Amino acid sequence: MFFTCFLAGVSCPCDGEERLRWEKIFIMMEDSHMMQKIFLQTSEELKMEMSLLQNLIKKLFMDISTSCLSVVEETCRSMNTQQNLEVDRNTSRLKRRRERMKEMKNVNEMRERNKIRKREKSDKGGRWTKLRFWS
Predict the structure, then answer these.
(1) In degrees, to the nearest 5, what angle opens at C-alpha 118 toward C-alphas 99 and 107?
(2) Quick check: 20 pLDDT over 70?
């Protein structure tokens, strides 16, 4: 591109060196303008790529969280089932032990009654056993 000093048919009083200097300045301005356009275009492309990357990361996070959530839910269900089985086993054990304790209590009560009857029979008056000298 050549710089010409013609304004409405009037020639410019520029000498050769000054004209070259102005041409260089205009060329530098054009280069600067082109560089600015390139930077703006690159910046826009980078923004778009960053937005795309952000969306991909969000999707990945949602997929991972969904899959992790399902695994955690399944694990919790399994643990709950195991705990319920253990509670059922312990409840049945407790019921059996209570029944045995009742049976043992009944047996002990019967033994005590038999002891008391035997004492009453051996003590004809029954007054010593009532006073609890022989227990």
Answers:
(1) 5
(2) yes
Helix (H) or strand (E) segment spanning residue 7: strand 6-7
The model's pTM is 0.41
What is the rounded CA–CA span in Å between residue 86 and residue 79? Answer: 10
What token pair was written down for 44? Answer: 């826009």
Closest by CA to 135, choosing from 115, 109, 121, is 115
Domain residue ranges of the chain, discontinuous segments joined by +: 23-98
Q: In the predicted model, what is the mean pLDDT of residues 119-134? A: 63
CB 22 within 8 A of CB 14: yes
What is d(CA 135, CA 127) in angstroms, rounded to the nearest whole number?
Answer: 12
